[in-house]
Amino acid sequence: xxxxxxxxxxxxxxxxxxxxxxxxxxxxxxxxxxxxxxxxxxxxxxxxxxxxxxxxxxxxxxxxxxxxxxxxxxxxxxxxxxxxxxxxxxxxxxxxxxxxxxxxxxxxxxxxxxxxxxxxxxxxxxxxxxxxxxxxxxxxxxxxxxxxxxxxxxxxxxxxxxxxxxxxxxxxxxxx
Amino acid sequence: xxxxxxxxxxxxxxxxxxxxxxxxxxxxxxxxxxxxxxxxxxxxxxxxxxxxxxxxxxxxxxxxxxxxxxxxxxxxxxxxxxxxxxxxxxxxxxxxxxxxxxxxxxxxxxxxxxxxxxxxxxxxxxxxxxxxxxxxxxxxxxxxxxxxxxxxxxxxxxxxxxxxxxxxxxxxxxxxxxxxxxxxxxxxxxxxxxxxxxxxxxxxxxxxxxxxxxxxxxxxxxxxxxxxxxxxxxxxxxxxxxxxxxxxxxxxxxxxxxxxxxxxxxxxxxxxxxxxxxxxxxxxxxxxxxxxxxxxxxxxxxxxxxxxxxxxxxxxxxxxxxxxxxxxxxxxxxxxxxxxxxxxxxxxxxxxxxxxxxxxxxxxxxxxxxxxxxxxxxxxxxxxxxxxxxxxxxxxxxxxxxxxxxxxxxxxxxxxxxxxxxxxxxxxxxxxxxxxxxxxxxxxxxxxxxxxxxxxxxxxxxxxxxxxxxxxxxxxxxx
Lengths: 176, 479
Description:
- The complex is a heterodimer of chains A (about 180) and B (about 475).
- Chain A is of the alpha+beta class and about 180 residues long.
- Chain A has 6 helices and 4 strands.
- Chain A folds into 2 domains: about 5-50 and about 125-175, Alpha-Beta Plaits (2-Layer Sandwich); about 55-120, no CATH class.
- In chain A, strands 2-3-1-4 form a 4-stranded antiparallel sheet, sandwiched between helices.
- In chain A, helix 3 packs antiparallel against helix 4 (about 90-120).
- The N and C termini of chain A lie close together (about 5 Å).
- By secondary structure, chain B is mostly helical.
- Chain B has 17 helices and no strands.
- The interface between A and B is large, with 77 and 75 residues.
């Protein structure tokens, strides 16, 4: 059995934020705070940069719009022209509703796929999910800070001391 | 210097609480803890089913079976089993389609537009409303699909696939725009709803006792651990989905209205249709949300989460959108007169005083008069009264679509082609049965999935606010 990381349980979001600030300032890199809901101010406390999901959304949207316009032009004005009531073969105006819907459709898929890719999800196995204390708390009413043993700054004694000073009442080594 | 030290208030400074008239009623009553919220909401799916659940499900499934029976009869025989015929070639089918798709709009409005407007009260109702959207879109999808007659050819009409002469669908028709609008709407609503469900599915997984339940909730939770690095991307994706759903929901009913507005028919050919349809859709959707949630909050003991304040706020949305709808009815008449086109005016006079006068006045009394009762706070706080009005809103909005479609069609250009539409039993049973499909899906949803967004409700409590004493803040309150 390998140790996955040191887990510290906090009771309130304020305690978790203060602990995260201390861990961030101590220079750790492979660590995370698991909370039942997004805690406002936690991104700054952990020193996380702005999420990159928006780029995937933008890419999806651009793909959707160009696909719509090109498809309609190719089908109705190039591959098989049909005259309908003397209207032009192609116009960006009548093509807009469909292209607009495709923009939104692919941008939405882009956002979701981007979120999953950046989060490395889905995954069906996680060492933390085998820990009873973790499962009973992280998605319920506890705020759990985990520092991985893989972190270059990880040191059993030092890290434990840091988490105790941050005010955690329960500290536990999680096995993999 | 840490962020906390920068913002903390010196202990010598005393911050007085705001005066009583400025404090808002809390979103979760009785100061419930974060743990209580997940226990209570997940408890609805975990305990034994309430006594009323199975009988209601059986009734809904029977109605749904009736609908599928009628559809089988329709497909086997042909659209002649319905009452529609020239000149009324669209009748209950498209009325039901627009009715159901309109109902869906409240879900997206609550989940997307109220999210962008930072209306925190949405968290208590958004999950159920989004589920309602999905199921209403499913019901809506049935009608255009079966109204085409030979539905086995639908594959060549809906997706862009060339027919046997290699001709592509033509994109100058609003009917094809509608295919893209409604299918995008259904898909994006599903994605949005599912994204919101992921953290709650993880909660359900971690609470599940049975092996099968644990596996299934775990499988669909995608390995969510509540990691803040994940929340950061998740919140951004959720915000973007809300931003995308907002123009989407406005466009869908606009495009549905193009089915009518782009035609040349008096009564349909009006530029007011897109905004008027969108307002009507939100109006009817909130009617349905209230019809579902008012009984559920009592039956599932959700009074602390879906509070009287929530119901009152939704009544105000009904009042606002109902007023827009009333204005649109008036404006249609004004333009018919002011436009100076005698045929247009005749079509509108015929609506109100012609052979379908009864449907017009049903619509006016339900949609124009009913919502204005909500000017009174006493009435907005009376749950039985709100429930009854919400049903009248549903009835009124069905009649609105009936009035628009049938009264505009039944007087054709030639008086020799005039007709009068009467529904057959197949029309009636298919429509009534669609409520069975809707209710079946909703009952299954509320039994097996958290009906209220657990993680989102937690996030709006004072216990979740790191700057609030209940959230563990050491000094003072908000600053």
